[in-house]
Amino acid sequence: MSHDISQFAEAHAKAIASGEFDTALGDFSAEFAPKVPSMVPLLPEGLNAAEVLSIEMRGSDHVIRTRYDGSTASATVEAVWREDGGRPKIVDAKFL
Fold this sequence. Notes:
CATH topology: Nuclear Transport Factor 2, Chain: A
CATH class: Alpha Beta
Radius of gyration: 12 Å
Strand content: 35-45%
């Protein structure tokens, strides 16, 4: 992947933590985007921070773990980023 994936991951995490879901939606592939609304309610209540915990290569994909912190809980998401349409996009994600 020719892009600096860490910049994309950090910007995505920041958008989610600040509630800019329309901005963050642009980071999902067209195939995965319809699944995103069902994941939003699983984020911690009072979401206020996010931290990229790890970035690892698996084949040509990047697997990125991000912790999202809320007022009383946190959740970690593992997302698979892949080159899609000339830039990295999330093609799969799950809560750990």
